[in-house]
Amino acid sequence: MKKKYWTIIVGGGPSGMAAALELYRAKKDFILIEKCSAIGGLSKTLIFKEKELEFRTDIGPHRFYTKNDHIDKLVKGLTQEKLLVVKRSTRQFIDGKFFDYPINSKQILKNLGIMMVTHIIVDYFLSVIKYRLLKKPIITFYDYAVANFGKTLANFNIINYTEKIWGMPTNSLSADWAKHRIKGLSLLSVIKKIVEDNLFIKSKSEIKTFVETFFYPEIGAGFIYEQIRNNIERGGYDILLNRYPTKIIHDNYQIKAIQLNVNGDSEVSIGLEYLIESITITDFLNLLYPSPPKHILEAASKLHYRSQVYLFLTIDLPKITEDQWIYFPDKDVPFARISEMKNFSCSMSPLNKTSLLVEFFCNREDKMYNLGKEELFELVLPYLERYGFFKRKDVRKYYKFKGYKDYPIYDLTYQSNLETIKRYLDAFENLYYIGRPGRFEYTSQDQSIEMGVNATKSIINKYENKIY
Ligand SMILES: Cc1cc2nc3c(=O)[nH]c(=O)nc-3n(C[C@H](O)[C@H](O)[C@H](O)COP(=O)(O)OP(=O)(O)OC[C@H]3O[C@@H](n4cnc5c(N)ncnc54)[C@H](O)[C@@H]3O)c2cc1C
Predict the structure, then answer these.
(1) Which of 381, 338, 333 has the alpha carbon at shortest distance from 356?
(2) How far apart are the CA of 434 and the centre of ligand 1, in A?
(3) 244 — phi, psi (to 5°)?
(4) Distance, CA 213 to ligand 1 centroid (Å)?
(5) Nearest to 395 by CA among 50, 58, 93, 44
(6) Quick one: pLDDT at residue 320?
């Protein structure tokens, strides 16, 4: 380790790794520091070995999809022929019935019945009157869902799942999350899509949820970031794993150095010209030395996060479903989503074996977050057996892992608190706070990659403009 680097990157998730790739390509001096024992952040792929067998899973499967040509090219260049095009197959389990996605209109009519379908359509038009003609403001997620789908459909499969994810009523959530998640989606766009599908018209829709194919690296989403790591390390640059800053020293709105833990208790100070970091924004503020003003820390304490628990089961069957994801919006089912990794890529499980990832959303203080893996397994098994996926005897092993602060919660005050914090951080001339945790933004991996690329471009521009 040197005493000073041109740029220090803290955080080796997609945003930090993308920033590192661009710095490596521009032949600039940098080091990347990651607190975990592996890079990839939330987009890493975990490997579970059972003797000679190898099962792989993402931390919640990660499809790759982007509208940005530069990011598309970048990822395809890194993964080449190892990037598969996967046809999307998803289902939802609501009120004891499975619903296919892409949408199957006959199945919807059969499962819901004509009365319910009529109710959905009438309610939708009532919402159009209320929100479009009478201009009722759309402030909360509840408003957004009802305005775009009508009360009956919103309650049937949007509001319940959203409340399961966030653990709070949708009228306490900002409409901003809907804009991230289901932008452009409405009952009208769903009907248009059904008509197009039935008439075999190729849809021109830009709505992310309607995308019927996506990219997936053959051996898991983490492959993208392992490829970046291989490039960087081959170029002679360092990635420091299991290291994290204990202090970020600043003066007069300039980050001067970071203090780093090395080997347990001892610490070392490293100087820098620029800092790119994707630490959770609240954690970052707490590392600043001297501490930020009280009102900034107060604003940070009002930003909240949702965490996740995962149960990964390895199964002695060649296949369980045809789906990549199955969603469970009903609140009486304890988990939110299951995924069969083999349906993303057959290389994710050994031959004639498969696996299932079960995802739970919770808060850190919830009982669920601290359940043992046996308790979690016993909790989910009756449901999975009842739905006909497999029997207890088919399960080889199961593993539990947890996420912490995975989902930034867009509640009704997050925006004003975030703006207060950003006004403060934006004053630091040589600081680039990026990524999902760094900006408290609900990003997908392509958006985080883009932030990393842009941070590096902006540093290089700034540097070149300073010199000439
Ligand atoms: C369940 C789930 C499913 C998802 N599905 C998809 C999907 O299908 N498609 C998609 O595109 N995206 C998906 N995402 C989103 C995707 O995971 C994120 O957008 C992406 O990983 C964010 O990258 P990032 O670099 O911004 O942050 P992160 O991935 O969170 O990376 C941040 C990194 O910083 C490190 N770090 C944190 N604190 C410190 C510290 N103090 N010191 C050093 N290092 C630190 C962390 O260990 C981590 O490696 C999903 C996310 C989740 C949770």
Answers:
(1) 338
(2) 11
(3) -150, 150
(4) 22
(5) 50
(6) 96
| CATH number 3.50.50.60 given to 4-45+219-300+411-467 | yes
Q: How far is the CA of 436 from the centre of ligand 1 (A)?
A: 6
The model's pTM: 0.93
Closest CA to 398 of 71, 55, 165: 55
Which residues form the pocket of ligand 1, taking CB atoms under 6 Å from any ligand atom?
A: 10-16, 33-36, 41-43, 60, 62-64, 244-245, 278-279, 283, 406, 435-437, 443-446, 448
What is the per-residue pLDDT across 277-331, written as a single tens digit (0 to 9) for each?
Answer: 999 999 999 999 999 999 999 999 999 999 999 999 999 999 999 999 999 999 9
Query: Which pLDDT tens digit goes with each residue over 327-353?
Result: 999 999 999 999 999 999 999 999 999
Query: Best mutation site among 15, 31, 34, 42 for ligand 1, i.e. most ligand atoms within 8 A of its Cβ?
Result: 42
Q: Where are the domains of the chain?
A: 4-45+219-300+411-467, 103-201
Please name which of 398, 397, 218, 394 lies closest in space to residue 320, comparing C-alpha atoms: 394
Looking at every residue in the chain, the average pLDDT score rounds to 92
Looking at the DSSP assignment, which residues form a beta bridge with residue 5? Answer: 272
- Helical H runs in 171-290? 176-181, 187-198, 223-234, 281-287
Q: Tell me, in angstroms, the distance from the centre of ligand 1 to residue 116's CA.
A: 40
CB-CB contact of 14 with 37 (8 Å) = no
User: Residue 419 Cα, ligand 1 centroid: separation in angstroms?
Assistant: 22
304 close to 365: Cβ distance less than 8 angstroms: no
Lowest mean pLDDT among 8-12, 74-78, 157-161: 157-161
pLDDT in tens, 122-146: 999 999 999 989 999 999 999 999 9
The structure tokens 């932008």 sit at 183
Q: Which atom of ligand 1 is nearest to the CA of 63?
A: 8
- Say which residue, 108 or 299, is predicted with more confidence: 299
Ligand 1, atom 48, residue with closest C-alpha: 41
